[in-house]
Amino acid sequence: MQETAEYQRLLAHRERRANWRLWGPYLSERAWGTVREDYSPHGTAWDFLPHDQARSKAYRWGEDGIGGISDRNQFLCFALALWNQNDAILKERLFGLTGQQGNHGEDVKEYYFYLDSTPTHSYMTMLYKYPQAAFPYEGLVAENERRGYLDFEYELLDSGVFSESRYFDVFISYAKVDQDDLLIQIDAINRGPDRRPCS
User: Fold this and answer.
1) Taking Cα atoms as reference points, which of 91, 60, 98 lies closest to residue 186?
2) H-helix segments, 110-187
3) CB-based burial label for 16 (10 Å; 0-12, 13-18, 19+)
4) Which residues pair with 130 in a beta bridge?
5) What does DSSP say about strands 112-117 and 23-24: parallel, antiparallel, or unpaired?
6) What pLDDT tens digit does each residue of the chain (199 aa) get?
7) Please, which residues bridge with residue 75 across strands?
8) 61: number of CA atoms within 13 Å, CB side?
9) N or C: lower Cβ tally within 10 Å for the chain?
C-alpha cells in the first residue's frame, strides 16, 4: 500500500500526534426550523424559527451557513455570504420551507453539490448555484402552500430565475496546510450572457 500524504495525516491523527479533524464541515446547512432551536411553549419548532427570522436571531446551540466549516465544538464558524445585487438580504444560509409551508413537508429549495472531501478534511470543495435575479423567497413559499399533497413540488428551477443560464457557479474550496492552518478559495463563475461580478 502506498503511503500517501492523506494516509500519513490519518496515521498521525490516530496516534494522537496531530488533530487533523479539529476543523471540518461540521457547520450545519440549516439550523432554522429545527427542534434544537425550538423554545416555543408547545413544541412547534417549524413555526418558532423559520428561515425569515433566522437572520435576526442568535442561535443557542449551533450555527448554519453555506459551505461552512468550524472547529468540532463550533466555537469558531466560517461560511460564505453572497449578494447578487438584486436580493434584499445577503445569501448567508440555505433557504427552504417548513413542514407546514411545503406541500410534501419541509424542504430546502436550493442547488448545491459536495464535490470532494478527504477523510481528514484536509481538502474539501463544494459547488453552490446562486441565481443572478432576485431569489424568489416569497414565491416559493406561496406556491408550495397553494399546492396539494398530490401535486408536484414547486422548485427553484420552476421559478425561472435560472433562465438563460443567469446564475453564478460558486466553488468553495478548503485546503489544510497543517492541522490549524487552512487555505480558503472562493471562485464565482458567471454562467449568464453578461459578465456581472458576484459580490
Assistant:
1) 91
2) 137-146
3) exposed
4) 168
5) unpaired
6) 578 999 999 999 999 999 999 999 999 888 887 777 778 888 887 778 777 777 877 787 888 999 999 999 989 999 999 999 999 999 999 998 888 888 888 889 999 999 999 999 999 999 999 999 999 999 999 999 999 999 999 999 999 999 999 999 999 999 999 999 999 999 999 988 776 666 6
7) none
8) 10
9) N
Amino acid at 137: Y
User: Are residues 95 and 143 in contact, defined by beta-carbon separation less than 8 angstroms?
Assistant: no
Which candidate, 173, 78, 79, places its Cα nearest to that of 125? 173
The residue behind cell 407546514 is: 100
Helix (H) or strand (E) holding 127: strand 123-131
Instruction: Collapse the DSSP code of 7 into the 3-class scheme (helix H, G, I; strand E, B; otherwise coil) and give the result.
Output: helix
The stretches of 42-193 forming alpha helices (DSSP H) are 45-48, 51-54, 137-146
Rg (CA), the chain: 19
147: cell is 399546492
